Amino acid sequence: MQMFSTRKTEPAAPVGPDGSSRTSTSTATGAGLLSRGVSIKGKVKFSNELLIDGEVEGEINSTGVLTIGEHASIRGEIRAKSVKVRGKIEGNIFATERCELQAGCTLKGDVEAPRFVVDENATFLGSAKVGTPK
Q1: Do the Cβ atoms of 46 and 28 come closer than 8 Å?
Q2: Helix (H, G, I), strand (E, B) or coil at 108
Q3: Radius of gyration over alpha carbons of the chain, in Å?
Q4: Alpha-carbon distances, residue 40 vs 44, 67, 95 (angstroms)
Q5: Buried b (16+ CB within 10 A) or exposed e, 85-94
Q6: Model pTM greater than 0.85?
Q7: Over residues 66-80, mean pLDDT
């Protein structure tokens, strides 16, 4: 008998055929989290908001807002409405609204976005196409 705890246990996270975790934790706002220590190979798709602080090797595709945390390492192409980078990316970013490289991040790849912000102390090795097509 539990006297003081009303905490419910969470079900085990589903595991893909290759042994990798295929889940993210959702909050009440619909935002997801791929935490530090989690590694995914393959495609990641989401629609609202996602914070990645782990490792992803493959495509990331979204109609929402993506934040790459300071501990994150991404190898692959990113397509999203808005991308904010604090970690490391090797690959191209295609944003339909905005891309922001924050201080301390590293991007080795090209950027295509209507608005592009690069903070001081961000490393950007690539080319950029900024603005809306005419």
Answers
A1: no
A2: strand
A3: 17
A4: 8, 16, 22
A5: bbbbbebbbb
A6: no
A7: 97
Joined tokens for residue 13:
């996270």
* Domain-embedded: residue 15: no
Tokens of 67: 């934040």
What span, in angstroms and rounded, lies between the C-alpha atoms of 93 and 109?
7
Tally of structural domains, the chain: 1
Mean residue pLDDT across the chain = 85
CA distance 104 to 67: 14
Question: Which run of H or E residues covers position 79?
Answer: strand 78-85
Residues 6+ apart with CB under 8 A from 67: 49, 50, 51, 52, 83, 84, 86
In a domain, 65, yes or no: yes
Specify the residue for token string 């908001």: 49
**Containing structural domain, residue 40:** 28-130
In a domain, 17, yes or no: no
Q: Is residue 74 part of a domain?
A: yes
